[in-house]
Design goal:
570 residues; alpha+beta; BirA Bifunctional Protein, domain 2; YbaK protein; Rossmann fold; 3 domains; nine-stranded mixed β-sheet; five-stranded mixed β-sheet; 29 strands; globular; ligase; ProRS_core_prok; aminoacyl-trna synthetase
């Protein structure tokens, strides 16, 4: 491709709306352009990278025995109401009505559609298992689309769905996808971790894993063991239940004491010199039309995902001021579990405390010497908190948990019969009895991968694409298009490399050398050949974008080195 013909405009200034490195660089290097908030056009360079990502995904999906289909983006709203997800997604659904007033949804995901498809196509165990996938545009009305392609309202996704006759079959399908995802992300040159995760709005009664690209700007926090392979999203990471301390004395009866205007953990710590781990923090929540309390240690934070699962609510939230006052007779900061007439969820770390300080249920007062199990009940004890960095690993004896930020690039779920039962996707087993299909679903954010890869592969000058994904393999910079010798050498190299099968971009623009170098670094093609003053002697400068590899070589040597470079890395 000749750069003079390429639809490409680079930007010298950082766009004001771009906060993350990937967003800035993809805009500046001419890979994408914003049409509206969270909606982007992929220019030729961006589309070439996307196609290479798609090719890797297709190869690994096909290798795992998965079949490609393409389903409609328009989905009847009735399907979502039938699956009971219409209200769960709520305002994130992009809906519209046709001329006959029938409501449709622009699909954010395709569980309902694919379940209906397979329900109508397969009725016997003899045609199972089957796994299908598609690569298609999805739509979600994000409240705050940001960070470029990392959180958009229109995005490209690979979604796959497996249908099995048993849980054992689902396990096999799940692990096939799990392994395929590892191969895909390795081929994309990513540093990533597979972590235990919550299933969120997709649901299902089985487990799930998120694949996280490690990056400082990641919105998700993951806890990783220093010793074993355990890794989990913070919302799913298991907290180790502490051993109850041996007591060689009897704790005195609880005692009320005056704490005027001391509402927060920090205030209690500073004014009364009480350590946060000696305080029992009580928070009032609302979920599924009921109010309840959660008690955690003062140095811990409530994990609302764990709590909502225990309660059986899709969503929970802190009760407002008026509700807390009405339910407890006191404002937040002085609420405690003693005598509280609500269901009280007690975190395991609190249950194992010998004694502690907590709100007294009266304004400006707290209790000291409060003993769990003696002064308030322990009917609902569980893991209701976020783990803290440096805690012991729940899966091995030697490791401790370290925190990293991650960008979610893939998610695999065991759905079980969540959709097949509601939508009637069943099969006749060997005895002729009707059984619901056992499902799994598996997603990869194709367009999100574009940003995640840039976040991990850039410097101050621009992007450094992994070899497998670069829009072009070789970038030829001709310093002066008016120099006949440079023109001849550049054309010779371009034709030779193209014939050898290398994707080559020739910068034949009438621009200053400095502009060409800056654009080349910004675009990030793996190998650059500079055709300059030494062209008359048959020599060119060879540069590798992601390393210090460079030198002045004869033309045949440059071509040979390119062949060796790509043969070693492909």
């Amino acid at each position: 491709m000749r750069q003079s013909n390429l639809l490409l405009t680079t930007l010298r200034e950082v766009p004001s709306e771009a906060e993350t490195n990937s967003h800035q660089l993809l805009l500046r290097a001419g890979y994408i352009r914003q049409l509206a908030a969270g909606v982007y056009t992929y220019l030729p360079l961006g589309r070439r990278v996307l196609r290479k990502i798609e090719a890797i995904v297709r190869e690994e999906m096909d290798h795992s025995g998965t079949q490609e289909i393409l389903m409609p983006s328009m989905q009847p709203a009735e399907l979502w109401k039938e699956s009971e997800r219409y209200d769960v997604y709520g305002k994130e659904l992009m809906t519209f009505k046709d001329r006959h007033e029938r409501e449709f949804i622009l699909g954010p995901t395709h569980e309902e559609v694919v379940t209906t498809l397979v329900r109508n196509e397969i009725s016997s165990y003899r045609k199972l298992p089957v796994t299908v996938y598609q690569i298609q545009t999805k739509f979600r009305d994000e409240r705050r689309p940001r960070s470029g392609l990392l959180r958009g309202r229109e995005f490209l996704m690979k979604d796959a769905y497996s249908f099995d006759i048993s849980s054992e079959g689902l396990d096999k399908s799940y692990h096939q996808m799990f392994d395929a995802y590892h191969r895909i992300f390795k081929r994309c040159g990513l540093k990533f971790r597979a972590v235990h995760a919550d299933s969120g709005a997709i649901g299902g009664e089985g487990g799930s894993h998120e694949f996280m690209a490690l990056a400082d700007i990641g919105e998700d926090t993951i806890a990783v063991c220093s010793s074993c392979d355990y890794a989990a999203n913070l919302e799913q990471a298991e907290a180790v239940r502490p051993d109850k301390k041996e007591m060689n004395f009897e704790v005195p009866a609880k005692e009320k004491f005056h704490t005027p205007n001391l509402r927060t953990i920090d205030q209690l710590e500073q004014e009364l010199e009480i350590q946060p781990e000696q305080i029992m923090k009580t928070l009032i929540y609302e979920g599924s039309g009921q109010f309840f309390a959660v008690v955690v240690r003062g140095d811990h934070e409530v994990n609302e995902i764990k709590v909502s699962k225990y309660i059986g609510a899709m969503e929970i939230g802190l009760a407002d001021y008026e509700a807390v006052k009405s339910l407890t007779g006191v404002e937040s900061g002085f609420v405690g579990p003693v005598g509280l007439q609500l269901t009280v969820l007690v975190d395991a770390a609190v249950a194992e405390m010998t004694e502690g300080t907590t709100g007294a249920g009266e304004k400006d007062y707290h209790f000291r010497n409060v003993v769990p199990g003696r002064d308030f009940g322990l009917e609902h004890v569980g893991d209701f908190r976020n783990v803290a960095e440096g805690e012991s690993c729940p899966h091995c004896e030697d490791g401790v948990l370290h925190f990293h930020q991650g960008i979610e690039i893939g998610h695999v779920f065991k759905l079980g019969t969540k959709y097949s039962e509601k939508l009637g996707a069943s099969f006749l087993d060997r005895s002729g009895k009707s059984q619901p299909m056992i499902m799994g679903c598996y997603g990869i954010g194709i367009s999100r991968l574009l940003s995640a890869i840039v976040e991990q592969n850039h410097d101050d000058q621009g992007t450094m694409w992994p070899v497998a994904l670069a829009p072009y393999q070789v970038h030829i910079l001709m310093m002066s298009i008016k120099d006949s010798e440079q023109l001849a050498v550049a054309e010779e190299l371009y034709n030779q490399l193209t014939k050898l099968g290398f994707e080559t971009l020739l910068d034949d623009r009438d621009e200053r050398a400095g502009v060409k170098f800056k654009d080349s670094s910004l675009i990030g093609i793996p190998v650059t050949l500079v055709v300059g003053k030494e062209a008359a002697q048959g020599r060119v400068e060879y540069l590798e974008r992601a390393s210090a590899g460079k030198g002045v070589l004869e033309i045949f040597e440059a071509v040979s080195r390119i062949q060796v470079f790509f043969s070693q890395l492909i």
